C-alpha cells in the first residue's frame, strides 16, 4: 500500500545585503525527511553559519524559513510554513495546506494591527509598509466562505510605491531597522488617503 503521508521539509535563510538600500535573497535550501531534523538544524544554524551573523559582513541572516511539502505530488503542494528569528525562535506560522480551508487566526497569532508600520520582503527588496487589513479572526463557520491558505495575509501599503500588497502573514515582520520620520509620514499619509477614499 502506498504511503500518502510522506513529507519534504525545506529550510532556508532569508539574508539581507547592504546597509542603506537593503536587498534580500534566500540562502541555499536544505532538505529534511522530518520536522524534528529540520527544527534541529534551525536551532544549530547560527553555530554552523557564524559568518552570516557577523555584524561586519554585508550579508546577514534576516530570518529562517521552514516550508513543508507533500512528496510525490503532481503539483507543488505546500502544507505549512514556519518562520523563525535568526536565533531560531518561532515568530509565526501558517499551518494551512495550499487548498485547505482557512478558518482564520486566533487573536494571539495576529501579530500586527491596522495602522502598524511593518517590514516585509517583496521580490528582492526589504520594504517598510503600513497595515491596512489583517487576517480574519478564527471562526469555525469560515469554511463556508471558501477561504484558503492564500487568504492568510495582511494587506499592506508599500512605502516606496504606495501600492497595496497582500503579504503572507508569516512573512510580515516588526521593523528591525530604525524608521525615519520621513518614511513614517509617507506611510501615514498614504494610510489616511486610503481611508478617505474608502469613506
Can you tell me about this structure?
With 199 residues, the chain is an alpha+beta fold. The chain has two domains: 1-95; 102-199, SH3 type barrels, CATH 2.30.30. The protein has helices spanning 35-48, 181-198, and strands at residues 7-17, 23-26, 30-32, 59-70, 78-84, 90-94, 117-122, 125-133, 153-158, 164-168. Strands 1, 2, 3, 4, 5 and 6 form a six-stranded antiparallel sheet that branches. It is flat and about 50 Å long.
What is the number of helical segments per DSSP (H or I, 4+ residues)?
2
Unreliable stretches (pLDDT < 50, length at least 5) are none
Mean pLDDT: 90
Kindly state the percentage of residues in helix: 10-25%
| CATH C-level category of the largest domain | Mainly Beta
CATH topology title of the largest domain: SH3 type barrels
Strand tally, please?
Answer: 10
- Separation, N- and C-terminal Cα atoms: 59 Å
Question: Any idea what the radius of gyration is?
Answer: 18 Å
Q: What's this, in brief?
A:
The protein has 199 residues and is of the alpha+beta class. It has helices at residues 35-48, 181-198; strands at residues 7-17, 23-26, 30-32, 59-70, 78-84, 90-94, 117-122, 125-133, 153-158, 164-168.
Which descriptors would you attach to this protein?
about 35% strand; SH3 type barrels; about 200 residues; alpha+beta; 2 helices; 6-stranded antiparallel beta sheet; about 15% helix
Amino acid at each position: 500500500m502506498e504511503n500518502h503521508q510522506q513529507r519534504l521539509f525545506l529550510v532556508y535563510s532569508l539574508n539581507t545585503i547592504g546597509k542603506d538600500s537593503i536587498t534580500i535573497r534566500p540562502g541555499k535550501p536544505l532538505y529534511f525527511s522530518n520536522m524534528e531534523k529540520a527544527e534541529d538544524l534551525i536551532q544549530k544554524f547560527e553555530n554552523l553559519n557564524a559568518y552570516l551573523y557577523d555584524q561586519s559582513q554585508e550579508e546577514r541572516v534576516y530570518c529562517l524559513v521552514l516550508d513543508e511539502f507533500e512528496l510525490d505530488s503532481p503539483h507543488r503542494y505546500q502544507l505549512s510554513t514556519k518562520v523563525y528569528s535568526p536565533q531560531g525562535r518561532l515568530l509565526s506560522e501558517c499551518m494551512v495546506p495550499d487548498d485547505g480551508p482557512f478558518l482564520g487566526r486566533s487573536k494571539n497569532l495576529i501579530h500586527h494591527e491596522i495602522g502598524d508600520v511593518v517590514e516585509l520582503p517583496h521580490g528582492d527588496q526589504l520594504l517598510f509598509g503600513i497595515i491596512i487589513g489583517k487576517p480574519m479572526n478564527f471562526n469555525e463557520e469560515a469554511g463556508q466562505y471558501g477561504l484558503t491558505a492564500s487568504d492568510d495575509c495582511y494587506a499592506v501599503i508599500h512605502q516606496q510605491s504606495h501600492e497595496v500588497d497582500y503579504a503572507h502573514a508569516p512573512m510580515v515582520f516588526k521593523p528591525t531597522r530604525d524608521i525615519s520620520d520621513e518614511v513614517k509620514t509617507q506611510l501615514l499619509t498614504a494610510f489616511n488617503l486610503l481611508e478617505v477614499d474608502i469613506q
